[in-house]
């Protein structure tokens, strides 16, 4: 019988020791639980389309050095925190100075705060589904703790810029924990970029814990290079009448994977998830989402769109679970996909699991190609064929991109997408 591959022990030995003792102890405990951790294979249901793209070597287990680099992001219209290779760079960051809002790196926490955080980290995630979040828990070198007191409002978006400096082979493990108090509000923008040509792994975890009435908007922009494998997880817990809104824009790579898990645990909670993915050449992107309606009178709306060109591969697996006590739930999931070439592949799997009898739920998925009639119409009006294709593909996803509430992010996404499509159709 063929043995199941396991995670190399090289990935269980973090380098940084600057964390407070409670977090070092947590990291050590999590590492001990990963001994002989099975790696996903084609027989692993939630990795069956992605396992062959996962390439982990022992030299990739080495933690990439922070090296004091300030990142390569453009100026942002708000507050910002810069991480290089998973470690905060204070001199490149600009923090808000507002009552009721605390932003600290894990390495700067006192013993009591570190102890409290150690009891919360990982509590928003189902690690059986997001297996590599466990690896992050054993390897994070630093992290960002954001605490909003009851009623606190962040007046501008907070940009967290994660830059991977892959000058040598290695890995980075960014981590964020957001504790949003009653009726607090904020917008968090996570931007993932990279430099360097060496093979690298970025393994991220972001967690949101929303108290009653909290209102959080999360924006995630993944723009790393072709040499970077990215495996990320986002966990969300929502209390009564809270609202969580997510906008994810992802560009493909050798391996891109994002698990987004939301639990609606208080009555009247609402969540809205939007996602856009584009892939070309032999790139790969895998989105797995899970929404658990635990309490009654909760609402969820989910819309994801994928575009795949050349010989690339995009995946959407969305699951909505309506628990027995979640009466009066209202849940809607929609996934539309566009294939630009015969060699491209998109796999979609929307799931509904309902155990309550008084609910309103719907889901749908489509896969198609560009409409030749629409393209012919544009060409007949004097628009070049390439530009006509760009206009049609942008129209396919612009409904979601236009909903991104931060103008700078929206414009950056639109420019990058437009460049992507012009390059794609030039090659066709």
UniProtKB/TrEMBL annotation:
Domain of life per record: Bacteria
Domain SUF system FeS cluster assembly SufBD core positions: 170-396
Biological processes per GO annotation: iron-sulfur cluster assembly
Protein name (record): Fe-S cluster assembly protein SufD
